[in-house]
Amino acid sequence: MSGKKPCIPAESEDLLHGNRRDFLKKTSFLTAMALTPGTVVKAAEEQWDEKIAGVFEKVSLHIDVNGVKHTLSVEPRVTLLDLLREQLKLTGTKKGCDRGQCGACTVHVNGVRVNSCLSLAVTNEGKKITTIEGLANGNELHPMQEAFIEHDGFQCGYCTSGQIMSAVACINEGHAGSEAEIREYMSGNICRCGAYPNIVNAIQAVKQGGQS
Amino acid sequence: MKKETIGDSLSRVDGRLKVTGGAKYSGEYDLPGLTYGVLVPATIASGTITAIDSKAALRAPGVVAVITPFNAIKVPGYQPEASTRVKGLKLFNDNQVYFNGQPIALVVADTFERATNAVSLVKATYQAQPFETNFNKNIDKGVSPQNNKDYLRGEAYAYKNAPIKIEQEYTLPSEMHNPMELHVTTAFWTGDDNVTLYTKSQGVISSQRAIANAFQLDPKNVQINSRFVGGAFGSSLRTWPHEVAAVQAAKMLNRPVKLTLTREQMFTLVGYRPHTVQKVGIGATADGKIVGISHESHSQTAVYEEFTERSVNVSRFLYSSPNVNTVYKVVPLNVGVPAPMRGPGEATGSFALESALDELSYALNMDPIELRLKNYADVDEEKNLPWSSKYLKECYQKGADSIGWSNRKAKPGTNNDGEWLVGYGIGCGAFGAYRSRSLAKIKLMPNGTVNIQSATSDIGPGTGTSMVLIAADILKIPAEKIVFELGDSSFPVAPTQGGSATVSSVGSAVHDACVALRQKLNSLAGKPENNTDDIDYAKVLTQNNLPFLEITQESNANEEAKKYSMYSFSAHFAKVHVHPLTGVVKVKNVVAVVDAGKIVSYKTARSQMIGGAVGGIGMAMTEEAVFDDRFGRYVNGNFADYHVPVNADIPQIEAIFINKPDPIINPIGTKGIGEISLIGVAAAVANAVYNATGKRIRELPITPDKLI
Ligand code: FES
Ligand code: FES
């Protein structure tokens, strides 16, 4: 944890204790009234207050993804995975379950592997995210990417981004000491195509190459 | 410069895209005005929807529409069917509910989160009716499928009169395809009669036809893109109702709609390998000659559609027997319809037949390989035709050598390694080698590079890599000068990727197109048509003032093939360790040996064999979809509770290819490996567990509780 106070709107303190939606409806409605009374009154009749509230429910977020700094405004319920895929259009990170059960969404948060579907985007304020798109050095592939190609560590390729991000972390954590250890520490990443032995071979090759 | 040939070990041609996140799958196209569709599941298993209250959902932020049977536009191709057995599911067409989880509405919103939230706000009321999801309770209601004939050769149930006989029942629970990519369809209309889809499909041409039929469009006006497919294993062989619903929603809203299934919905809406109970009887003489086999199968299907597969067929031809009879029935339940899953039917059937054969070997006190050799089928006794090629004996031999079969103890439970019991097993399989009509277009560019297009797919086997190797071999140019494109319905027609027939069908078209191009270039260069010496392609183009050279070639199965029975064959060997106190099974080694004709792309073929073995280990050890029959709902519709094998479950797996070209099937001599890689694996593991423990597990998966 960075220890910094999360950047959420000032009124949020009140909201922690209760009726956030009603509060937002009121404040946003009043603000909107002041701006364009006619339309909004009509909108309110059509129960558009909910929709306007939706706009105001967003939270600001500062996040560094693959070295690019973003200042964003996101709904608190947006996961880091969906932020990457749907808002930042970084679709290299995959969604296989949305429940933390498959590893397809693995990214590095401040260098640590994380299932991005289990991490709400707003909890990553000020953090550095590395996705599969940020692993290579320009045109030069990361050794793990090279090794996956060389050892055919994938077939359909859908689990591959997660496998590679996990594999890099597996070595960095010191969990690639033996074939058995690699298997154990790579078991959070499902590959339905069944490329497991090739994945293990790729990781061992990188490990033995002394780099990751 | 290296010039690759057929059989080389080339790294995947799309490997770089896949390891950098650059490969775009169907849910990853950014379209202006994109909306997100999430399906609302029925909470009853049978009955009718009486009302759907969408008010709260429509009021929620960002919600664009809630599409229900009460407000959906009609899909013009949804016509009443003559028979309820082939009816199929037509979403939002009427208010019938056939199974729990059937979509009753589609919420469309401007973001995924908002659509997902609004799903919880849709309230449906139902008139519920009694339903059945319990297979065992309803097995007596099994019916013979339409167009299905029971099989008889010689005398029925002849095994009963044999001196040594086995008569047992084998059960496979429902197994889910569970490709890692969630099924997804993005659809948008560009006019009243023109629609484009990015959809997870194993066959863009069949998807094109299905969508054209549903909306009564000229197929030319339906564009299907499926360039990368994140696994499928059969789950994308057909166009599912939710794909039609995405197109319907896009039409109603006049906006692009991206409809993604949740993992839980993947358990009910895109098929599965059906729960099957099989009875196998085998009788033999005292010296091990089989005198009769009977194989009866009951499989689950949906009340709204009949699904069949060939689970009993393998017993008709895999071994020589004068008497064989098979019976196949389906049991309609309030469940989603099954779909072919890798090694469809054959994998289920081979588990039963190969387990029974193993039981017979112990009853005869005979080595399981010797028993197989004794009953080796030199011709196809079902079709009464010679094999186009069959090297199963070589498979037995190579596999036995590699796994260390000589270390196997004939008496179960007598082989120890420390506190573990050790066992060895064999399981065999066969899968038809097919070839169907396919086209390929080849274009030679002025710089000497080649572009080839065909509307085939790649769900993971490495189709592009195989095609590039075939082209490199014939054109005698380096693989890096060749680009193969697939997954687009505007490309020349190719069959759906299924039945292990892509290299046989599309590979033949690529082969023939390359040969035609080569001949053309030879004649342009003033050489004999069949000249094989190197020629400078770029120079030939320049000399003839040609900007490029393009040929589209059609390739069809040959007449000669009708005189033969064509199959790929496999022998899988497993070595297991079983912990007698806890019942824990560790698969220590798997050797997969296949006779699949010529191997075109060694590296990807090896991976495919490994992948099939992993699927087979899942079938043997972990996979089981469990119903709660009180509600007709799966209790384990997720990856935490439905266990597919993970890395720690899988040992190193050895793939061995006989690699002898089939002389008949196609010009390359390749027979296909996608299915055969899985068929026989589950029996090999179950037989190894018996050899280790003396406990015969006839009901998969082999979980520890069954061994203690
Ligand atoms: S998508 Fe995150 S673990 Fe499966
Ligand atoms: S490569 Fe297909 S799921 Fe791993």
From TrEMBL, chain A:
Keywords: Iron, Metal-binding, Oxidoreductase. InterPro entries: 2Fe-2S-bd, 2Fe-2S-bd_dom_sf, 2Fe-2S_ferredoxin-like_sf, 2Fe-2S_ferredoxin-type, 2Fe2S_fd_BS, Aldehyde_Oxdr_Iron-Sulfur, Beta-grasp_dom_sf, TAT_signal. Residues 57-135 form the 2Fe-2S ferredoxin-type domain. PROSITE patterns: 2FE2S_FER_1, 2FE2S_FER_2, TAT. This is (2Fe-2S)-binding protein. SUPFAM superfamilies: 2Fe-2S ferredoxin-like, CO dehydrogenase ISP C-domain like. Signal peptide: none annotated.
UniProtKB/TrEMBL annotation, chain B:
Keywords: Molybdenum, Oxidoreductase. Pfam families: Ald_Xan_dh_C, MoCoBD_1, MoCoBD_2. Residues 20-130 form the Aldehyde oxidase/xanthine dehydrogenase a/b hammerhead domain. SUPFAM superfamilies: CO dehydrogenase molybdoprotein N-domain-like (SSF54665), Molybdenum cofactor-binding domain (SSF56003). This is Xanthine dehydrogenase family protein molybdopterin-binding subunit.
